[in-house]
Design goal:
The chain is α/β, with parallel strands linked by helices and 270 residues long. It is built from ten helices and eight strands. It is globular, with a radius of gyration of 18 Å. The two termini are 34 Å apart.
């Protein structure tokens, strides 16, 4: 039986709209408006992410979730926007330390979404290929938000060859020591094998699917290539049952591929 954590029908129709404080109220000039948890974190449109954020905080407290990946069956299903918005919600937690990691090396877009220029540098790719580069040297603050970003860095021909190196795991384990939440934008589950190289280092994964776009067959195939023990849940994106009223509509499910409730357990590293 499918369990729905919460749906938008049960959320109050309006909430006060405020913005995160920053230096003279400034935001990065190119910050994308659909990153609602950064632009208007208390608006109704941010409520689905607040719901999701509360679930992640509860898992962090109850079962020690620290490193959470966000993926999707294919491209264009909203995983990167979901990743950034979730990181933005978690950054609102009192004294929370949040690191947003861009591990989708084939389609890096996080800096563009955040309106940050000149911060690409060597990034994750450089830190993996050059072990002398510390995590501190490749992580960038994202003012005025309480958020740090590890961008992908310079482009390269074979992301797979970078992600398979043990140095990636070392960096993520180091990040876990310095941050309460490490949120990773990973490559799609299909057609590349990149995600499977990252999976061994994460505590859990959320899979983003797009309503009316992601077919059941594609979702089943995507879930088949991942470890079901790490599945935290599914995020249904672009559900138009409330599209006439609100731009974003999400529902959250915790279930296994066979339709039964999927329990979550933290991955124990050896």
């Amino acid at each position: 039986m499918r369990k729905t954590f919460r749906s938008l029908e049960k959320v109050a129709p309006s909430l006060p709209v405020t913005s995160l404080p920053g230096p003279e109220g400034a935001f990065p000039e190119g910050l994308k408006p659909h990153l609602v948890t950064l632009v208007t974190p208390m608006a109704f449109e941010a409520e689905p992410y607040r719901v999701l954020g509360r679930l992640v905080v509860q898992m962090h407290q109850d079962v020690g979730l620290h490193i959470l990946a966000i993926s999707s069956p294919s491209v264009g299903e909203g995983k990167t926007s979901t990743t950034i918005n979730l990181a933005g919600v978690l950054a609102l937690e009192p004294k929370a330390r949040v690191l947003l990691v861009e591990a989708d090396l084939r389609r890096p877009t996080i800096l563009k979404y955040l309106g940050i220029s000149g911060a690409g540098g060597k990034g994750l790719i450089g830190a993996v290929l050059e072990p002398s580069l510390s995590l501190e040297r490749v992580v960038h603050p994202c003012p005025p938000f309480n958020l740090h970003v590890l961008p992908a860095g310079h482009s390269l021909a074979s992301p797979y060859d970078v992600l398979k190196l043990p140095r990636l795991g070392e960096l993520l384990q180091e990040a876990q020591q310095h941050y309460d939440y490490v949120i990773i934008d990973t490559p799609p589950l299909i057609p590349f094998a990149d995600y499977r190289l990252i999976e061994q280092w994460i505590d859990g994964v959320l899979v983003v699917v797009a309503a009316h776009k992601t077919s059941p067959k594609l979702l089943a195939e995507a879930l088949h290539v991942m470890d079901p023990a790490r599945l935290v849940g599914l995020v249904l994106n672009k559900d138009d049952h409330l599209a006439s009223q609100y731009y974003h509509a999400y529902r959250y499910y915790a279930q296994s591929p066979n339709g039964h409730h999927q329990g979550w357990r933290p991955f124990r590293r050896r």
